[in-house]
Specification:
The protein has 66 residues and is mainly alpha-helical. The protein is 67% helix and 0% strand. Helix 1 runs antiparallel to helix 3. The radius of gyration is 12 Å and the shape is flat. This is ACB domain-containing protein. Residues 1-66 form the ACB domain. InterPro entries: Acyl-CoA-binding_protein, Acyl-CoA-binding_sf, FERM/acyl-CoA-bd_prot_sf.
Length: 66
């Protein structure tokens, strides 16, 4: 996994662990960046906050050990 992908996944996990499931409407089709972020956050739907934080920690430890 690339560093960029790891950081994006970490951002998704932080959002999920702090806010929970998606609680806002999906951005419009012209907001590409917002839509990508929303889709990534929504991909964690149903995951517990604790599981999201554990996933974040696992990725962070992997980055630190590189």
């Amino acid at each position: 996994m690339s560093n960029q992908a790891e950081f994006e996944q970490m951002a998704e996990d932080v959002k999920k662990s702090t806010v929970g499931d998606v609680n806002i409407d999906q951005p419009g089709m012209f907001d590409m960046k917002g839509k990508a972020k929303w889709n990534a956050w929504n991909s964690r739907k149903g995951m517990s906050k604790d599981d999201a934080m554990s996933a974040y920690i696992t990725i962070a430890k992997g980055i630190i050990s590189k």
